[in-house]
Amino acid sequence: MSALSRRQALQAFAASAAGASMSGWLPALAAAAGGAKPPRSVVLLWMTGGPSQLDTFDPKPNHENGGEFQAIDTAVPGVQIAEHLPGIAQRLDRCAVLRTLSTPEGDHGRATYLARTGYRPGGAIDYPTLGAALSKELQTQPERPENDLPGYISVAPFRLANPAAFGSGFLGPEFAPLVVGEGAGGSNGGGTELTVRNLAPPRGAGGERMQKRLELLSNFESSFARNRPDAALVGRRTAYEKAVRMMSGAAAGAFDLDEEPAALRDKYGRSPFGQGCLLARRLVERGVPFVEVSINGVAGGEVLPWDTHADNFAAVQRLCEVLDPAWSTLLDDLKDRGLGDTLVVWMGEFGRTPTINPQGGRDHFPTAWNAVMCGDGIVGGSVVGATDEAGMEVTDRPISAADFASTLCRAAGVDPWRDNLSNVGRPIRLADPEANPVEEILA
């Protein structure tokens, strides 16, 4: 990391004097002095419903399947993307585009599970989402500072399509996500605030009274657990203890976006997704290993906003007007704060049909779809794979869900072949042992 500028240092000390977010600056200052990089975190931008690849990162402007949108040039010579992502087009030299994910599941629930775990649903094994698995590995890094915040935080998820796809599976409750702002609706604003439920003590139960309640709970649980050395029970108690520390410590301040300048909040966009991306930066700054932010809902209130079976082009344009400034500002903000090593991943559960249906929409299409990875640990400007001129078939480098999961692990600095003991007593690797990571995008 390059040395901090005089302006950045003054901002850090000013924030300290005001009692605001100095915790995020201490690791950066230490890294600047010692030459060490801060530990890597992952931010997943989850596109609920499955975004159209032709209308984002694999446009087909010279084919009837291309639809209404134009293709625009990017910071990578010879590479074009769809017109409603101009900010990301200017920053594509920091990103790797994977154009040929090819998966077998076309149902939202099953496809969400596959994309988020790397394994197909079914059978006795309760696979953890990659957010849980990666946070478990990342939060044990010796260089990562101790933290009262959870290792995995999910902002505004829509979990009803498949709740198991958002859970910690056989890893247990200790690695389950802290959910923030579930139900935050309307990507263009409004809806639930991005807050943590039940973070404040009940009315009239603060201070000494709250402490006595916690002591009573601890006594009951200790007595119960004494003769029950169960891993799930230990995980549950660990999760509760961390929740109590959050309630009583400075960690809760991470969720106070009012600490941020109004101009920066405007730049991210005042939608739940835009503010969620700002929150993700604040959490990464404080050492949280894995944060995900979901887009859920557009002007019409759809909870699967990228599920554009009708009126695809108007919906995608609205969504991109929310996505593009938030994502672009997140990349810049991370870079400016010495956190450019953060891995930022964009994806949904599948793509959309190249052909346009009679309702002006695109239907489910898992055969060939896109994902994007950004950050200093990625070979910027990479474009992997190709589809035919109609977008119907993969012609070069198909990428399976397992391939993607192993690539995500490698990009995050985690061995994809590490084992965890499953709920059926079998060791299960983070990614399928038959997977082939996309080595060409790994810096």
Which key features would you list for this structure?
two-stranded antiparallel ribbon; 443 residues; alpha/beta; eight-stranded mixed sheet
Descriptive account of the structure:
- The longest helix has 25 residues, at 312-336.
- Helix 9 runs parallel beside helix 10 (312-336).
- The protein has helices at 6-17, 22-34, 86-90, 108-117, 130-138, 207-225, 231-248, 262-268, 272-285, 312-336, 401-411; strands at residues 42-47, 71-73, 80-82, 95-101, 152-155, 178-180, 290-295, 343-347, 351-352, 364-365, 369-374, 382-384, 386-387, 394-396, 419-421, 427-429.
- With 443 residues, the chain is of the alpha/beta class.
- Residues 1-35 and 186-191 have low confidence and may be disordered.
- The protein contains eleven helices and 16 strands.
- Helices cover 32% and strands 14% of the residues.
- The strands form five sheets. It has an eight-stranded mixed beta sheet, with helices on both faces.
Question: Would you summarize the structure shown here?
Answer:
The protein is an alpha/beta fold and 443 residues long. Helices cover 32% and strands 14% of the residues. The radius of gyration is 22 Å and the shape is globular.
Question: Helices and strands in order, then pairings?
Answer:
Layout: H1 6-17, H2 22-34, E1 42-47, E2 71-73, E3 80-82, H3 86-90, E4 95-101, H4 108-117, H5 130-138, E5 152-155, E6 178-180, H6 207-225, H7 231-248, H8 262-268, H9 272-285, E7 290-295, H10 312-336, E8 343-347, E9 351-352, E10 364-365, E11 369-374, E12 382-384, E13 386-387, E14 394-396, H11 401-411, E15 419-421, E16 427-429
Parallel strand pairs: 1-7, 1-8, 4-12, 5-6, 5-7
Antiparallel strand pairs: 2-3, 4-11, 8-11, 9-10, 13-14, 15-16
Helix pairs in contact: 9-10
